[in-house]
Known about the structure:
Number of helices: 7
Structural class: mainly alpha
Number of strands: 0
Amino acid sequence: MHQCVDSINFEKICSTNSKKEAWDILHKAYGGADKVKEVKLQYLRRQYELLFMNDQESIVDYFDQIQALVNSMKSCNEKFTDQKIVDKVLRTLAPRFDHIVVAIEEFKDLETMKVEELHNSLEAHE
């Protein structure tokens, strides 16, 4: 196992006597510990809450940011529904999309709308 890790990780596990001991050290160091996941999740939640679309930002870029955050939070066992993400997007779009948001809210069923459907609709209007 020592031959499969880089020099930085080798320093962490070089004094271990078993593969299990080495694995446990690497597992704790790279997010396996529950406490580490919880701290990371709190940080990601804060980023998610503060995320708003910039005036110069494109729909594609904004959705990429949201999806990256959601994927990171899911890896820490956070639960997400499409409706939660759709609501977030509609609340945080740049003001230039206000008229589109009103039309989407009025004519679409937000309870069943998928993130991809919203993304396509906004991208078409952009």
